[in-house]
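subagent[fold] <- orchestrator: predict structure for attached chain, return tokens only, no commentary.
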Amino acid sequence: QVTLVESGGGLVQTGGSLRLSCAASGRTLSSLTMGWFRQAPGKEREFVASISWSGGGTDYADSVKGRFTISRDNAKNTVLLQMNILTSEDTAVYYCAAGAPRPWTIVRAMGVNGFDYWGQGTQVTVSS
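subagent[fold] -> orchestrator:
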């Protein structure tokens, strides 16, 4: 069993930055694929980014590519999401997720179904 806890959300102005953190307990994350998803009001949960168990492979949704960076520190059992140049379109609850190691193409194709463990989410609000 893995427990994930997100932190770092908040209110930021357009063009600003936030860094989300996901801390895990119960099991080491070093063998798991990690991901970030987000869900805006009235919308489905959508993929944001994923990172392979080794950290050597990353994947991003087109909407965040070039602005967001996912990273992991297996020694600290944490995953980070650095978010820059934020816009109102990024306003959502952001969720950290962990799942079995798979090629990034499979992870992307499976979406939320590719992850077995989820955090409770952290709110990110971008004001214009």
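orchestrator: received. Logging for downstream: The two ends are 40 Å apart (CA to CA). Helices lie at 104-110.
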